[in-house]
Amino acid sequence: MSKKIKDAEKKCTRLGAELEKAKENVKEAETKLATKQDEFDRANMDLVNLLLVEHKLTIQDLPELLSELSSENKNAAVSSQQDTYLN
């Protein structure tokens, strides 16, 4: 076999291994993301429940409250991402 063919085979083997590792990393990241999303959802529900009790709110007040929380959480997420990229 020529050197070019051997080099090409080595390159394909190496890239195949890198691709598999990248796929594993994506799966791990998706799992971490799902876990963080669950934690976030539970924390939001805890917060809503506490706010309902503390402020003596009713179910009718929830849409406005959830809208406010959603805006605050989006702003916090953007700020967190900016901090991550800046550091």
Please give a handful of descriptors for the protein shown.
2 helices; mainly alpha; coiled coil
Strands, helices and their partners?
Layout (H helix, E strand, L loop, with lengths): L2 H52 L7 H25 L1
Describe what you observe in this structure.
The model has no long low-confidence stretch (mean pLDDT 85). This protein is an all-alpha fold and 87 residues long. The protein is rod-shaped, with a radius of gyration of 24 Å. It has two helices and no strands. The chain starts with a helix and ends with a helix. The protein has one domain. Keywords: Coiled coil. Residues 5-46 form a coiled coil.
Shape: rod-shaped
Largest sheet: none
Secondary-structure element series: HH
Please report which band the strand proportion falls in: under 5%, 5-15%, 15-25%, 25-35%, 35-45% or over 45%.
under 5%
Keywords: Coiled coil
Coiled coil: 5-46
Q: Brief description of this entry?
A:
This protein is mostly helical and 87 residues long. The protein has helices spanning 3-54, 62-86. The chain contains two helices and no strands.
